[in-house]
Input
Amino acid sequence: MSYSVLALLLCAGSVVAGFLGALTGLGGGVVIIPLMTLALGIDIRYAIGASLISVIATSSGAAAAYVREGFTNIRIGMFLEVATTLGAVAGAVVAGHVSTAVIAVVFGLVLFSSGLQTFRATHDIAGAAVSSPAAVRLRLPGHYPDGGERQEYGVTGVAPGFGLMVVAGGLSGLLGIGSGAVKVLAMDRLMRIPFKVSTTTSNFMIGVTAAASAGIYVGRGYVVPELAMPVMLGVLAGSLIGSRVLVVTHSRILRRVFAWVIILLSLEMMYNGLAGRI
Amino acid sequence: MTKPPDTPPGSDEALELLLGRLLQAGVLVAAAVVAIGGVYLLIVRGGERPAYTSFSGAGAALRSVGGILAEARALKADGIVQTGLLVLIATPVLRVAFSLFGFARQRDWLYVLLTLFVLTVLTAGLSGWQP
Output
């Protein structure tokens, strides 16, 4: 396959990945890495480098649209970025010392559990009615627009949410993904933040988390311009389309469809890792 | 969706809007640089049959900020693309730096501290710091 054809395939796949990533707040990495490794046979380290770049583009490109809609909570984002950036640097350091088969299996497990979590969520959580004292001290509670009305929400579970965010950052740094699934899990399940606020704030944080480990990956040569170029441009285009659709679609149906895609990909990733093909 | 007219300049909403625009601008600049370098890359290397099935890593010049900028100044396609990627990586870092000013203007010292901490971690990662 010539480089022109490879670039075209990567770009097309990345458009789809960016679209799904922005719609669900999970980021494009969960689709990009299986696409590059399973479908195109690219070494997982190159895939991780390109994916990490693409999640920065997804996050930053879509953030502007989300912020305008008023769903993003920058205080929650900044507070939790303390956890995710620390985790991300640790994850990127660990990634340099483990085999690619291990990374593939961990990636599959993360994918599988995010798929299950997404699938289990059958209702949108309206948010905590009463905030915990810690959340109030940190000024985390906020509001979002709901049919022209201002919907207030509380925040709780600050300590467990922060802890899971360290893990989310670690996985992001280890696997080159946004780990939006874990971020959303921490926010909507543990901290009881409304789903749309969770997904958009998660999206806002993903870029910062990824930037924390991106420097380390560039230094290791995981980021090659030939592969990162079509992936970044494709994901960016897809995420811009996706962020325009988010506001008008039902999050519940989206989550179910995406859950199935993720579960299937995760099984294939784990199988390939265990079979020593990655 | 229209913003309420009473959004004060120092409020969270105004800060969020500014940060959103900053991110958008950074990504657009990065995408433009990557696209220009990308077209050039396709012209000069489009017919090659590179193997990415085994890992050898990016060339040494493309692994550090100094090396990347030197390649771009020499008008090499891969250096131009990589420079665009550096702009992209720098965008969320700039976003964090800007929120520092925003929180300082609100005299929210707790968040100034939290932001400073995040900025330190980001700078350490970006400066090529390798433990």
